[in-house]
Amino acid sequence: MKKIKAFLARKDIVFSAHRYGIDALSAMAQGLFCSLLIGTIINTLGTHLQIPTLNTIGGFATGMSGPAMACAIGYALKAPPLVLYSLLAVGASANSYGGAGGPLAVLVIAIIAAEIGKAVSKETKIDLLVTPLTTIFVGVALSAGIAPFIGSAANAFGTIIREATVLQPFLMGIIVSVLVGIALTLPISSAAICAALSLTGLAGGAAVAGCCAQMVGFAVMSFRENGVGGLVSQGIGTSMLQMGNIIKNPRIWIPPILTSAITGPLATCVFRMEMNGAAISSGMGTCGLVGPIGVYTGWLDGIAAGTKASITTMDLIGLILICIVLPAVLTWILGLLFRKIGWIGENDLKLDN
């Protein structure tokens, strides 16, 4: 047992929820962002501006989503170079076999392939052959064997959420908005979760609402302490910056959560706001304005497919209210109330410089 522990320590193989559930998951979202999401945005610009070259560039970017996710996961797991490069093939195969649930398949299979690759790395004199062969063979074999099941399970669960939101838009609007919003502020990746579950449609709209409530809410609520810098870093960066303060005083999290519980059902029941762009956009909120851009991209896709006639004034009003105005106003009001009753104290929302 001691030898095994020593070997794992030497190879930096750590079996932990933090490494796989936070580090690897967050890295996967970054890989997906730098391929599928950016490619989708470029494609949208190409179509909207009628510039075919942009569509070509966007196509190359979106086509690399599997390899990009796997490579990002390997980097998070501190894989050596030969393992890292070999994961490109693993990501491509896992994403392909996984179908609609490809991101989750990539996450699971890339982790296994990376750790096995790390285990054999530099253990033989022909490392240049052994490490890539092992990593790729294990990854592709697992892709063929289990990726379809992982993908189907993820897609089925996502379908349940999507259909439940259509059937019960008020209740599910609250649940999805609150839970995805909380995930966005926690040190895990709400974007990766939405991508893995293919969370689009009305459920995707609720997720966008919840994420925007957290980001815009914290940005506005903490303006007194953090000024313009804090407004920008949280409003178009991440509300995760407040996690340290939340641990110290969990009550500061209540206003954004309550706001998401209001804006979620408004998005699903009143404005019928759907997020039919890339699923990862559902979990991005106002980070780089990706959430609103995803909704807009979905509208354009719907028009191109003939499922949506046009972008209406009500669509635009709903998008602005749900993503910007209501999170800012509601969280600011709730924040003032909490300060008045003493639940939020002086500098409780101040970010570390």
Concise structural overview:
The protein is mainly alpha-helical. The chain has helices at residues 2-10, 17-49, 52-63, 65-76, 81-98, 102-120, 127-167, 169-185, 190-196, 201-221, 223-235, 243-248, 254-270, 290-305, 313-340.
Shape: globular
Q: Count up the helices.
A: 15
The total domain count is: 2
Radius of gyration: 21 Å
Strand content: under 5%
* Uncertain segments: none
Can you summarize the main beta sheet? none
Features:
76% helix, mainly alpha, 353 residues, 0% strand
Describe this structure in words.
With 353 residues, this protein is mainly α. The protein has 2 domains: 2-155, no CATH class; 168-340, no CATH class. 76% of the residues lie in helices and 0% in strands. It is built from 15 helices and no strands. Helix 2 crosses helix 9 (190-196). The longest helix is centred in the middle third of the chain and has 41 residues, at 127-167. It is globular, with a radius of gyration of 21 Å. The chain starts with a helix and ends in a 13-residue tail after the last helix. 53% of the residues are buried. The mean pLDDT is 91.
